[in-house]
Amino acid sequence: MRGRIASGVARAFATWTIDLDPDVPEFRVRMTCDVCNEHSEVYSDDQAGVGLWVQLHTARTMHTRFTEAVTRQWVMTPTGAIGQHLIDTPQEAAR
Ligand SMILES: [Zn+2]
Description:
Blueprint: H1 7-12, E1 16-20, E2 28-33, E3 43-44, H2 47-61, E4 66-71, E5 74-78, H3 84-88, H4 90-93
Antiparallel strand pairs: 1-5, 2-3, 2-4
């Protein structure tokens, strides 16, 4: 019976976990000036770089208000085989 179950249905019933993506930096930060909208480059795991950009921007423009944007990437991972619960409980799969 499990061969007749559409793969999309089986995926919908899989158990998934969500975690931070281990293949990218834990977070990335970009600072934007609230006055002129100029923004820093994106820094990864480098708060000193963000602070230096703000100090240099203020020294050059006298702008003193900023917005920080922090980005973290997440990844969904199936736990166990996709659709495994359908194999474990064949009476449910037959419905
Ligand atoms: Zn500015």
